[in-house]
Amino acid sequence: MGMITITIVNKYQDDRAAIAALLKEQADFRVISVGSDGYDALKSATTQRPDIIIMDFHLKDIDSLELAPIIRRSSPSTALLVLCSPDEQKEQNTVANSLKAGISGYLLRQEGFDNLASSIRSVFYGGWYISKPARDLALHYFTPAAPDISPLSFTPTETGILRGIISGQTDREIAKNLNINIYSLRNCISRIKTKTGLKNRAQIIIHALLAGTVHIGNS
Q1: Do the Cβ atoms of 162 and 216 come closer than 8 Å?
Q2: Measuring CA to CA, which residue among 104, 61, 59, 106 is closest to residue 83?
Q3: Sheet of 79-84: strands edge to edge?
Q4: pTM for the full predicted model
Q5: What is the Cα gyration radius of the chain?
Q6: Contact status, residue 99 vs residue 138, Cβ threshold 8 Å
């Protein structure tokens, strides 16, 4: 199993230590850098190119919504997760704007770090993760802007892939559950993008949820 390289950027020293300690317990994780601000995040992205950067929603020197596109241009293979406080969650459109900025994981700080390891694996394998209490906020924001949310016709395999993505499964887990190989899965995702005219998995899932093609379960 390959190692997932991770950079932690958090303005709170106690949080940095807690996150680092948790991740070091995972056999497939390797923390390669720890920082406190946006400069540290960008420096890691450009020089170390980690697989994942975990950062605060608001950093000391820059907001994650401004920083995310810069990091994505500097290191396209780096996936981004943000930690959001209850007050930050109340700010207008934080979930939707995070997705638009290229952030793949949105975790609520009040949940602690229980879901951090699973969310890292999800975004590393090309998925996305939104803490369950925040999912309705994303759907509520996108509803009035959706130009066409009529149901589309998906094959059983495509529907299974959509359900797997929304449940936070990795590509490998979805492929195993559907008894297909990883290349067939990714070809299916490409066909879904062509069929829907959408650009990425987040947009596809939001469209599918609004259209009633798939539903958020209890997980």
Answers
A1: no
A2: 106
A3: 29-35, 4-9, 52-56, 79-84, 105-108, 129-130
A4: 0.66
A5: 17
A6: yes
* pLDDT per residue as tens digits for the range 49-71: 999 999 999 998 998 999 999 99
Does the fold of domain 156-211 match that of domain 4-136?
no
- φ, ψ for residue 82, nearest 5 deg: -115, 145
For the domain made up of 4-136, the CATH class stated in words is alpha beta
For the chain, domain boundaries: 4-136, 156-211
Q: Which CATH number fits domain 156-211: 2.60.120.10, 1.20.58.100, 1.10.10.10, 3.90.1150.10?
A: 1.10.10.10
Encode pLDDT of 161-197 as tens digits. Answer: 888 877 667 788 899 999 999 899 989 988 888 887 7
